[in-house]
Amino acid sequence: MVLVHTNTTSRQLVELNKILGIECWDRVRLLLNLFTNQANSVEAKLQVKLAMLQADRSIMRELANLQNRGERLGWGAGGRHALENNMKIVEREIATLQRKKRRREISENERRKRRIKTSVKTIGLIGYTNAGKSSLFQSMAGKPVLIENQLFSTLETTIGRMQKSPRILMVDTIGFVDNLPSVLLDAFNSTIKESLTCDLILLIIDANDNKIEFIRKLETTLRELEAQKELFDFNRLQTVITKSDLVTNNKLDDLYEIIEKYDLTTPIHTSSIDKSGIIKLRTTILSRLYGNPVSIDIFPATENFHSAQSAIVANLHNLGHIIDETKLDTLDAIRITLWVDDSVLSRYLSKKGNQIIISEK
Ligand SMILES: Nc1nc2c(ncn2[C@@H]2O[C@H](COP(=O)(O)OP(=O)(O)OP(=O)(O)O)[C@@H](O)[C@H]2O)c(=O)[nH]1
Ligand SMILES: [Mg+2]
After folding, report:
1. For the whole model, what pTM was predicted?
2. Nearest CA to 213 among 272, 265, 258?
3. How far is the CA of 354 from the centre of ligand 1 (A)?
4. pLDDT tens-digit readout, 23-47
5. CB-based contact 177:7 (threshold 8 Å)
6. CATH number, domain 2-100
7. 246 in contact with ligand 1, CB cutoff 6 A
8. Residue 336: its H or E element
9. Mutate to test the pocket of ligand 1, among 31, 147, 180 (most ligand atoms within 8 A of CB)
10. Could you tell me which CATH number the domain at 294-360 has?
11. Count of CB atoms within 10 A of residue 189's CB?
12. Where in the sequence of the chain do the CATH 3.30.70 domains occur?
């Protein structure tokens, strides 16, 4: 087999195969095969299969062109007929898969809309493949996902709740690679869209790459984001340098300096192995999503207000991320300091009248 280390046209592949007489793959076909082996979920399988059939279709079209120009391609007698038949089958299959994909996209969109209505905030993890997105997801959401030292371990989207923050969802998804062929980009478009439309997007970069690789991967990722400008807003980006356990502080300083040149927010460095930086990242996420924490005082039940203080505290645990809980000496009040969405809090407070007051924001 011959592997061509670039994205070729179908014409080039067919010509090469004709000359060499052995199977020839370009980068697209190699990636597609890698994806086929690693696709586990229904969603990923569907996307990969569609991309594979689309690539096959363009090869078949090229073969048909050659035949029309009168070349014999070893299909033997009735070759043209067989090719036409196969093309019809592939076309039908593509149409079926596209219909399925559209149906799934519609229900995905519905789910996203429902999330927005319930004022749940979302965080997308994006970055070059193998940067450490799934590891960070697992460290912060506590939900096990596939982590491997290889390209494209993750092909499907996993959504998990950020720990201790009931109303924040994190989205782990496929990574980027340079020159991602358009058939693959199209196939994974809805997957990538899921991350890019989040309230906050963590751009994950691998500290353990040498500087040249670091810059190359960062630029590839930024280029992909630039290409999705209509979905994506750079203000929602937070850069995260990960695998900090593998590098010296000097190297980290150099990486901070590089990132500064790209006009990105000051990064945070983390390690999913020794867990350093995770708390700082969580705090940054919360303050970027909610602004300053708010302190509220909860008073004991009265004739007019029947909720027990403990019940209110329990409710607040479901609404936001509680930082502190103190019993005030005066008035038997409990003071809770928490990060919470403004509209969620005001809706809750309006139900509780003046049994709860905001003491500080
Ligand atoms: N030392 C160290 N290794 C890490 C860290 N984070 C991830 N890794 C390793 O880096 C490799 C890739 O990690 P993943 O979390 O699978 O990366 P990913 O970005 O999800 O990769 P894809 O899904 O393949 O795009 C694995 O071997 C991880 O164990 C880290 O903070 N420190
Ligand atoms: Mg992954």
Report:
1. 0.86
2. 258
3. 49
4. 999 988 888 888 888 888 888 888 8
5. no
6. 3.40.50
7. yes
8. strand 334-339
9. 147
10. 3.30.70
11. 16
12. 294-360
What is the whole-number distance in angstroms between the Cα of residue 335 and the centre of ligand 2?
40
- Cross-strand pairs, 335: 297, 326
How many alpha carbons fall within 13 Å on the CB side of residue 314? 5
DSSP state of 176: B
- What is the DSSP secondary-structure string of 127-145? EBTTSSHHHHHHHHH----
Which protein residue has the closest C-alpha to ligand 1 atom 17? Answer: 132
Structure tokens at 175: 């990574």
Report the alpha-carbon angle 246-252-253, nearest 5.
160
Region of 246 on the Ramachandran plot (φ > 0 left; ψ -120 to 50 alpha; else beta): alpha
Residue 227 tokens, joined: 């290409």
Confidence class for position 75, pLDDT limits 50, 70, 90: very low
Atom of ligand 1 nearest to the CA of 146: 16
CATH 3.30.465.10, domain 119-290, yes or no: no
- In the chain, residues under CATH classification 3.40.50.300 are 119-290
